[in-house]
Design a protein that fits this description.
The chain has helices at 3-16, 24-33, 36-42, 59-72, 182-192, 239-247, 251-264; strands at 20-22, 56-57, 78-84, 87-97, 113-117, 122-127, 138-141, 147-154, 157-163, 170-176, 202-207, 212-217, 220-225, 228-233. The chain is α+β, with helices and mostly antiparallel strands. Strand 13 and strand 14 form a beta hairpin.
Amino acid sequence: MTPENMKKVVDLCNQISNITYENLTKIIRLEQTGSATGARKLDDSDQNDIDSWMGGGTCFSMTWHLYQTLTDMGFKPRLVMGHKRKERNIHCALILPDPDDLSYLVSSLSSNSYLLDPGYLIFDPLQMPLPQPFGSGEAFFPLSPNCVRLVRPTLESMELWTGGAGAPMKLRFEYPVEGVSVEEFKHHWNESFYREMMTYPVLNRLDREKGIQYYYQKGNLVVRSSTGSKMTKIEPADRVQTLSDIFKLSPSIIEQALQILEKKH
């Protein structure tokens, strides 16, 4: 990829790198509309206006924003779904063919391409390896605090592995490289509103400058750095203000989402 095109992609990734992964606005929108389709269409990222986002979004919001923006910039990104063990289509990301390598016009599977996975807090375009015997079959990226390994067992598939602070690498997702249509992507987006993870708050934010990841789920806050991880339980009385400070979200959004979840339990 030419330096000019790479700078455009990196600048876009940097623009969204401070956004919090969170399902609170998703919970609120579903409550407001009563349907996944209505909630999805209410998502600010569907209008491609990142400045008016309520605070963040899940992998679908972030990936869709990138897809729209890169398409408007003249790139040809592909929407891809991520599978985890027996769970299908629970994650999503983008594959960006190198526009300066015209082989992608002949084969979408064998061209020089990059993985963009903002929903997993990877805000760097990762050059995808080619499977053996065409290439090394894998590529390693020493990101902080989580290093990443892409494994390409075949032309049709790729695996995302992550690890950090001496912990063993774990397989996170497997992506069919060919990708899905916009219609199929939105179908899986709709289905995501009814998954188990929508029954409790999930927040995830990366401080790239300090190399620190903050992750909150079911009352526990995990702070991960290059030296290791620490888990702290946040008491209910402290939740709203603490989560607002750490994840840069409005206290009113956090409180509204928590009230919705409490009514359903």
